[in-house]
Every structure is written in structure tokens, then in C-alpha cells.
Amino acid sequence: MSRLAPSLFSETVARPLADRLRPRKLGDVVGQDHLLSPEAPIGRMMAAKRLASLILWGPPGVGKTTIARLLADEVKLYFDPVSAVASGVAELRKIFEAAQGRRASGQGTLLFIDEIHRFNRAQQDVLLPYVEDGTVVLVGATTENPSFELNGALLSRCQVLVLNRLDDAALELLLKRAEETEKKPLPLTNDARTALKAMADGDGRYVLTMAEELVARPPGKPLDSTQLAEFVQRRRPLYDKAQESHYNLISALHKSLRGSDCDAALYWLARMLSGGEDPRYIARRLTRFASEDIGLSDPQALPIALAAWEAYERMGSPEGELAIAELVIYLATAPKSNAAYVAYGAAMRAAKEYGSLMPPKHILNAPTKLMRDIGYGEGYEYDHDAEEGFSGQNYFPDDMQRQNFYRPVERGFEREIIKRLDYWSDLRKKRVSKSA
Fold it and tell me: For the chain, first and last CA: distance in Å?
């Protein structure tokens, strides 16, 4: 049973192919065996004929709405679908009132909320008591990470199930079903068929929509990949600059650079740019990488990062994006060291731990007689006048032991820095032994 009339499962002539091929039972759903097989979470629930409240999280076109409808049918619940985009608290209260009436007569309700992440916190809170007392079984669908978009109280009352984007085998199965339904093969070469599945980017609804357009094409030679690209407008990659895909891809780029995988880094850069990411954001993150993960192992990394950023600002897109690509190649192939990053963090922790210790008096300026009288500047050795240009004096507070924050690695230019630090350390030890 459902609020929608007529049912989407009824046969009508004008229905789109994607709707006509909508699965009629859970076993017909493709690509989600990890949830639907007998030993999987939903499979176990169906065997027990008991459904918990669920959050179905996955990309578009993988079957979230279809699964929700079939679950209601399987456990004999009234199916009440709403969209979080078009519904408010007033409509929800009417739904709960109707659900309470059905419950009194022995009929349960499955409340399906599409794009549940669009509900604000207050709207999500309205759901809590009705989910808690079993007035409704909630099934929410979202393309966004529930950890970021749903409040903890609601998540604690639901089981989060992750749906996979459809792989090549699942998309191929959908295309074969389309051909059987239309009783004709798709007018595509093998390469073009592969290209169509790549264009779908894991979205079953998209691949069926494209298949319907291709079937309706006037008879002729099968299309090759180039002709298919002209026939079908290529969809924009699935990417939301404000949501999880944004953070996932910048993380993939950063870690590919850290792992010195130039080709993978270029791929993730291309994914971000083709998805519409602001190149300035990428340039800023790459500049951070130059400091955090390369540092002084290649002192040119930071100036080159700033130069690439400036080049983009001057040229704009698309020409300026080449400068960013060159920067990615440079950073990926540069020696890596986070020694400066670690040293800065250690120094910050020490500053908090030791509090407001004064510098030793011998390195304080003494512009007044009083300051000279109390010892400011007394005993300071001017390093340029010292032997080898190094006095070896103590520059830490008197009440603080000498610390070793910066520990360069045996890579790139930091090899040379190690030699300098070791040289100064030896001189310091000799100065201390002479004064002892």
C-alpha cells in the first residue's frame, strides 16, 4: 500500500524505461548484494520479517528509493514517501497522525524520506519520538555522509547502510534488461557500449535513460565511441564542492603527493577540476603541502607553489590550470620531509608546557642603565666575532633544558642541513667542555 496513486509498479504506456524496469522484488535489485543477500543486513531482516529504521547512503541512481518501496511491500507496511526538499514539519505531523491511526488498527507505516540530509536539525528532531515509539519505521535516503548531515540522536535510532555505485557488471545487466524489454539491441559498437557505462558513472537510472534515447534513434549503423559522445551529452562528474566528495578527493590528491605517485596525483587533480572545484582552493592546499610534506628537503617547493598560484591568478582558467598541473608534478617528484611540520608542533607544545619563561639575560638588549645594572646583555657573545662564527651560547630560558625540535631527514636538501646541525652540535659540546 502507498500514498501514491497509481502505483509506480502499474503498467502504463507512457512510463519511462527506467520506471518500467524498476525491480518488483529485492532479488531483482542489482549491485547491492552486500546488503540484500540472505546473510547480509537487509536479507537477515527480511528473513525475520522485521525491519529496523534505516539510513540508505549512496550515490544517485543505485536503487535507494526502489529498495525502500520493496522493503515496505516485503514486510507489509504502508509506504508513505516524502521529499525533504518539499516537506516541512506541518506535513510530517499529518503523516504521524495518520500513522498512529493505522497503528491502532494493526497497520504499520514505513516513512520514506528522500534526501533526508536536506532536513535541518529541528526537522530531524521532530522525527525522534515517532521513530523511538515505533509509530513509523523510518527509511531515509541520502547521497551525503550521514555523519556530517544527520544529528547524533537520529543516527543512534537508525542503522546506516551504504549502497555501492553500480559497477560495470551491474550496468551491463541493466543494459541487457533494457534490450530485452525493447526487443532490440542497442545501436552501439563494443567500445561505445563500454564508453556508455563509463559515462553513467555508476548511476543505473542514467544508463537506462541513455539506453532509451539510443533505442529511439532512427535505424542506422551502430555508433562508435566518438559518435556516442556527440549523441549523448556527457554528464558532469559527481562532485559537490561543499560535501564529502570535496574532502575525499583533496585527501586523495594530498596522499598521492605524499606517496610520490605523480600519475595518481594528476588523476585526482583532473577529477577535482573536471568536477568544478575552484583552482584557487587547490593551489592553496598545494602550497600547504609544500610546507607540510616537503619543507626544507626541497626549499624551492614553496616558492614554486606560490609562483604556480600567482600564474593561475594572472591567466585564469583554463590556461592557468596547467601551472597547477606542473606544480602537482613538481611536488609529487620532490623529496619528502615533514620535519619542519613536526618541529613546529613540538615547539608549540613546549611553549604551552613551560609557560612565560623569560629569555636568558645575556641575550636581552639593555637600552637603559637600569637594565644594564640588573644584568641585561651581560656576557653576550657576538657570534660574528666568535671563532668559526659560532659562540655556542645558550638561547633557551635558564629554567628550561635544551630541546631538539627539528630533526631533518636524510632526503634532499635536508641532508645538507643535517651536516650543519651536526657541525654546530659538535662545536657547542666543545664550548661546554672548555667552560666546565
Answer: 93
